[in-house]
Design brief:
Blueprint: H1 5-12, H2 16-24, E1 32-33, E2 39-40, H3 43-57, H4 62-72, H5 80-110, H6 122-128, H7 134-137
Antiparallel strand pairs: 1-2
């Protein structure tokens, strides 16, 4: 199988500029080129790009994906490092969820504004002065 970059993009649902970027930063190997200098990709490129796309969808950063790809290339190796990378990412996700939950709570408090005048608006007060935020006072 020999795919053009457009065909690879359609098969993997990854945009062409993103594919080029992944090549530029070394997540994807430089592809084979035709005599006319067109890129050509094979099944391994499709699998690798699908791996990258799914890892990105799960929120992994580029460097973590690079490490995971390296580890995936050594299938007989212990998967402890994979667990460590994933566990660290999970902790980041939990932290982000906690911050977003606090943000949600603050916004819910802010929108409880009784819609009087702007000069008495709880939303404007809280945005203007971080000390007025509910979570800041706790």
């Amino acid at each position: 199988m020999s795919l053009t970059i457009g065909e690879l993009s359609r098969q993997t649902q990854v945009k062409v500029p993103t594919i080029r970027y992944y090549e530029q930063i070394g997540l994807l190997a430089e592809p084979v080129r035709t005599d006319g200098k067109q890129r050509r990709y094979g099944p391994g490129d499709v699998r690798r790009l699908n791996f990258i796309r799914h890892a990105r969808a799960l929120g992994f950063e580029i460097e973590a994906i690079r490490q995971l790809l390296g580890l995936a290339g050594d299938p007989d190796r212990c998967c402890g490092e994979v667990h460590d990378i994933t566990r660290a990412h999970l902790e980041e996700v939990k932290d982000k969820i906690a911050r977003l939950s606090a943000l949600r709570d603050e916004l819910e408090t802010m929108v409880a504004c009784d819609h009087r005048r702007i000069s008495e608006c709880r939303i404007i007060e809280a945005i203007a002065d971080h000390g007025e935020c509910q979570h800041h006072q706790q």
